[in-house]
Amino acid sequence: MLMDEDEEDEENGLNVSLEWPPQSSICTSKPASPMLPTPTPVSPTPMEPSNKFKFVWRAVSMPQIEPHLRREPFSQINSGPTVSFASPYEAFIAIWDREIMEVIVRETNIYAQKLAMAMLENGTIYPNSRITHWQDTNVNELYTYFAIVLAMGKVVKNRLEEYWSTSQDIFSTPCFSTEMTHDRFLLLSKCLHFNSNNNCDPALLTQHQIKLLKIKPLIDHLNNKFSELYNLSQNLVIDESLTTWKGWLDINQSFPNEAATAEIKAYELCESQSGYLWRFELHAGLDTSTPQDNPISGTVPALVLRLLDGLEHKGHTIWMDSFFNSPALARELKVRGFDCVGTLRTNRQFVPYDLTRLTIKDMTVGQVLGCTSGDVDLMVWRDRKRAAFISTYHGLASTRFREKLKPTVVHDYSLCMDRLDRRDRLLATFPIERRTKAWSKKFFRRLLNISVLNSYILLQNQSLLHRNFRNALVTDLLTAHRTPKPNTATIATQVHYPAQYPLIKRGKSDRLRRQCAVCPKRTVSYCKACNVAMCTYTCYETYHTSH
C-alpha cells in the first residue's frame, strides 16, 4: 500500500481534481485543495491482516506506473479445453455423460410410478389418461428427448402440437413424429425428474438446500464437468443470468420495470473471450445464517469467493459490475492473487465521501475525479452520464478510441463485457426454455442450452458455425440413440392401474367376472400390470401394499 499521507488527510477527507484529457502521455493530477501535499511515489508494503480493511485514500502518484506492470502475472500456460473432441456429439456427451443420464432415468421412472399411484388414490386417473400408457424410459430415449428439445429451439413454432401436425402443407414437420409420438413427449416432459422428493429432510438440510433440492444433482454434475473440461484464460467475468418465469416462486427475483417481472437468477463465472461457463450458482434468497463479522462476509462477497474457489494466485482478472464490486472485495481479491475491475456504486463501504457526494452537475463532460489506496483505485468519469469504476491496476491511464480519449479502465471493461453479451445473444437465438410449467424443468432447459454452447467452445472448430454445430449435434444424437419402435400390443404395461374385463357379448352390459384376490367377491375389475382380479375401491390398495 502507498501510505505517504498524514493522518489529518484521512480525517479531513479527499478532494482531488484531475485535469482531463492529460497534457502528455503521462496523466497529471492537480490537487484542488492546498491542504493536500504533492504525493511522492512509495513502494508498496506488505499488508498485515490487522489493517487489511483500513483504507487511506490519497491522490494518484505521478508519474503513474504502467497498468501492465501493476497487474498480477498470469501463470496458467495451457488455457482452453483439457480434452480434444472430434465431433459435436463427443463434446456434448462429455458433459451429459451416461452417469447423469442414468440418474435422470432412474428418478423419472420412480416419479412416474408415484404419480400414477397418487392419481389413483385421488380418483383422477381414467382409462384414457396418458399415465396409463407409461413405460419405463431409458438412456437412449432420454438422449432422443434432448435432441427433440434442441430441435425445437432451431425450428420455432407457436404451439407444441404444431410440431406433430399431420397437415400436408409448407408448415409441416413430419420428422418429429418419426422420432417420438406427441403423447410420449408430453408424458416424458411431465414425469422428467432429477432428484427424489424423499431426500428433503428439513432436519438435515438448510433452507437454501431445500429450495434447490429438485435440481441439485444437475447443478453439482454440470459444475464439475464444466470446470473439469476447460482451463480458463486470464480475463474472467462474474455476471447475473436471468431466466424468465411468470409463475410464483420463492427463489425468483422481481423486476417491476421489466417486461417479465419475475426471473430465475443465476450467478455465473465465465471466460470473457469465449463466453465459456465455468461455474454457476443459483440464487436461493438471502442467506441470513452467515455471520457478518467483517466487510467480506456478506452475501455478495461470499458468493464471489465461492465462484472463484480453486483459482487463487494464478493471476486471473475478475470483471464485475456494480452489483458485486466494493473496495473491501477488491482488496480481498488482490490478497488472493486476483485483479479486480468493474463499475462501482459510490455508496459502498470505504468509498471516500468526496466521491460519494459527486453528482453529474458537479462535473464537466470528460472530467475525471479519482483517488487510490495503493492497491485499489477509484475513479469517477463523466461522459453522457456519471460513471464510477474500481480497479486494482489501471490507475488513471488513458486510451484513444475512435478519435476520443477515455480512461483505459472504461475501454477495457466495455470490451470484456461486450464479449459476454455475444454469448447471451447466441443463446437467445435458440429459445428452448419455453413451454414448461415447472421452474426446475425450465432451468434445466436453460442449463441444456448453455451446455450446448459450452460443447461448441470445447470442440474448438473455428470453421463450424454455431447454428451448424447445433444441427450436427441433433442429427448425431438421433442417429446414435434411435431405437426401433416397440410393438405396443405385445408389451405389458408397467404402470399399475385398474381396468375392466371385456364384455361377454357385444351389445350387452355383462362383463367377465373373476374371483377377487383379496376378498371372496367376484369382480369385473383387475390390475392391468399384475393381471390379477381385485375390487377397485376396497381391495386395490390392500393388495398392492401387501405384495
Biggest sheet descriptor = 9 strands, mixed
Unreliable segments (pLDDT under 50, ≥5 consecutive)?
1-50, 488-493
Query: What structural class is derived from the secondary structure elements?
Result: alpha+beta
CATH-defined architecture of the largest domain? 2-Layer Sandwich
How many domains is the backbone divided into?
3
CATH class division of the largest domain: Alpha Beta
Mean pLDDT rating: 81
Instruction: State the CATH topology of the largest domain.
Output: archaeoglobus fulgidus dsm 4304 fold
How much strand? 5-15%
Compose a concise summary of this entry.
This protein has 547 residues and is α+β, with helices and mostly antiparallel strands.
Descriptive overview:
The protein is an alpha+beta fold and 547 residues long. It has 3 domains: 84-206 and 437-488, no CATH class; 232-429, 2-Layer Sandwich (archaeoglobus fulgidus dsm 4304 fold), CATH 3.30.2170; 498-545, no CATH class. The chain has 16 helices and 20 strands. It has helices at residues 7-12, 67-70, 88-95, 98-122, 139-154, 175-179, 182-191, 207-211, 216-228, 299-307, 327-335, 353-356, 408-428, 439-459, 466-481, 540-546; strands at residues 16-17, 30-31, 80-81, 230-231, 235-244, 253-254, 262-271, 277-282, 317-320, 339-343, 368-372, 377-382, 386-391, 398-401, 404-407, 498-500, 514-515, 522-523, 525-527, 532-533. The strands form 6 sheets. Strands 5, 6, 7, 8, 9, 10, 11, 12 and 13 form a 9-stranded mixed sheet that branches. A 3-stranded antiparallel sheet has the order 16-19-20, with no helix packed on it. Helix 3 crosses helix 14. The protein is elongated and about 105 Å long. The N and C termini lie far apart (75 Å). Residues 1-50 and 488-493 have low confidence and may be disordered.
